[in-house]
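Backbone-to-sequence.
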C-alpha cells in the first residue's frame, strides 16, 4: 500500500489523551473511545490535562483547536456529543464545521440512536 493510500495514524495526528483512541472514521466523522475518568471537554483551561483532547477548547463552537503538526493535518475537532467524566463510551466528533453541523442536526432530529449499558457491581 502506498503512503498516499494509507490511512493516517489518528492517535499521533490528534492531540488525544493518552488513554483515548479513534475507533472508527467515516469521511470527516470520527468515533473516539473516551475512557472513564477523563472529561469529554475541559470546563476550565486548568482542566485541559484531564480531557479527551489535550488542546484549547471553544465552548461556544464546541470544538477543540490547536496548531497542526503539518499543513495537511487537522487543527480542530468539533464535538457532537458528550459523556460524563466517570463514564466510558464513544464520543462522536467531526473534523470540520460543516460535518459537525450535519451531525448535530441528526442528533436534534432524533436520527441518531443512543444505547446506554451499565455495569453494576455489588
Amino acid at each position: 500500500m502506498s503512503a498516499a493510500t494509507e490511512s493516517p495514524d489518528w492517535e499521533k495526528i490528534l492531540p488525544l489523551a493518552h488513554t483515548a483512541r479513534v475507533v472508527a472514521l467515516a469521511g470527516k466523522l470520527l468515533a473516539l473511545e473516551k475512557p472513564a475518568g477523563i472529561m469529554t471537554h475541559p470546563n476550565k483551561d486548568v482542566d485541559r490535562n484531564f480531557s479527551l483532547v489535550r488542546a484549547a477548547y471553544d465552548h461556544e463552537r464546541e470544538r477543540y483547536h490547536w496548531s497542526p503538526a503539518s499543513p495537511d493535518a487537522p487543527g480542530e475537532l468539533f464535538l457532537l456529543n458528550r459523556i460524563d467524566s466517570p463514564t466510558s463510551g464513544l464520543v462522536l466528533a467531526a473534523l470540520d464545521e460543516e460535518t459537525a453541523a450535519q451531525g448535530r442536526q441528526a442528533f436534534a432530529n432524533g436520527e441518531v440512536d443512543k444505547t446506554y449499558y451499565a455495569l453494576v457491581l455489588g
